[in-house]
Amino acid sequence: MTDAAVPTGPAGPIARSGVARVGAATAVTAVCGYAVLYLAASDLDPAGFSVFAVFWGAFGLVTGAANGLLQQSTREIRLARTGLPQRGAITRPLRVAAVVGVVSAAAIAATAALWSTRVFVEYRWLSVALLALGLAGFCLHATLLGMLAGAGHWSQYGALMVTDAVTRVVIAAATVLVGWGLVGFLWATVAGAMAWLVLLAASPTARATAALVAHQDTRSFLRGASHAIAAAGASAILVMGFPVLLQATTSDLGAAGGVVILAVTLTRAPLLVPLTAMQGNLIAYFVDRREHRLRALLTPIAVVTAVGAVGVVLAAATGPWLLRIGFGADYVTTGALLAWLTAGAAAIAVLTVTGAATVAAALHRAYSLGWVGATVAAAALLTLPLTLETRTVIALLCGPLVGIAVHLYALAASGRPRAPR
Questions:
Q1: Quick one: pLDDT at residue 282?
Q2: Which end of the chain is flanked by fewer CB atoms within 10 Å, N or C?
Q3: 10 Å Cβ neighbour count for 368?
């Protein structure tokens, strides 16, 4: 890997080359994610895949919450490198992330007896241990991603994403070849959480970026990060942790649950995987356009909506056939369900965009309130006395609308001139 020197001047606008690099890395990450799901669905029966998918979702949930560190680190490093004066004592984000990771892992281990029997029906204590260790590593992974995004080092940002994704595929492929079964796929899920160590060892630019300091002091950094983590945790329930939410609101998912979870995962991945990967780009984009917050939303929302509309048509027309050909005769569903699930993914994608804008505007309370409101609404809708498929669609379509409304209201209110006292 060849690295350029770390620039010392202010961070400039988001370059097209940066978006292209992250886009390429996102494509590789998406393919790797599909590969892991394909290997698991092919190697396990639907009931076994349901167990794997719940752990995959649980890890996505906790690491999704840790992505709040990515968002806060991106904003802090970006502001620090625009020439704004330092506020308070020096804060090193990676050190903060290490503490947060250890505390989070300890919290998982200490509380596991209260919730693990409800979530993990097989290999319970192994799942708890892997979840805790994986989260500790991912806190540093997410923070380094955010720092690279804030500093504009998109090649290293993409390399870290790809290393994480490829590591998972290698372990999953080895699982199929050796016959490790469900246990191997559990290890594959968390294997990429140490990718940040590989990048630091290989890249001088990554090591120099890891030494950068935040714009604000530690207390302010943690206060902003706590709001971002709360919101990212709520978003993770809807994005990666949705299988856990289904498990919590359904007595027995069984084979039908495995089919629904796979359908939800496949229909949202084309939109949400790249969008989640490009959180750093989005936040930096909105920070650079902080004088026109609402106007800056128009382009990304239009792109997301257009891609979602194409996805709805493709899901209805080819989705059932692709599902059956790709994963076998046990995974059968209708084109209508896949189309509605794709529309739900588009709604979550729009919520992700408005959330990035609120983070960039330092509206942390509104950011977290929007995501928490969307998640609470979706969880409540999942308790409706309807079929699993129907309530899943309603929850994924209607829940995000609550959060979008909260974010847009906060952005509009923040742009109004304040009346004189």
A1: 83
A2: C
A3: 26
**What does each C-alpha distance from 315 to 50, 267, 276, 352 come to in angstroms?**
22, 7, 21, 21
Ordered by start, the domain boundaries in the chain are 16-414
pTM for this entry: 0.69
pLDDT bin (cut points 50, 70, 90) of residue 198 is: very high
Compute the half-sphere exposure of residue 162: CA atoms within 13 Å on the CB side of its CA. Answer: 14
Query: Residue 65 to residues 46, 216, 319, 368: CA-CA distances in angstroms?
Result: 28, 21, 30, 11
Q: If 0-12 CB within 10 Å is exposed, 13-18 middle and 19+ buried, where does residue 251 land? A: exposed
Kindly give, in sequence order, each residue whose CB lies less than 8 Å from that of residue 132, ignoring residues fewer than 6 positions away: 104, 105, 106, 108, 109
Query: Collapsing DSSP states into helix, strand and coil, what is residue 416?
Result: coil
Cα dihedral 8, 9, 15, 17 in deg (nearest 10): -30
**Amino acid identity at 226:** S
- 281 versus 154: the higher-pLDDT residue is 154
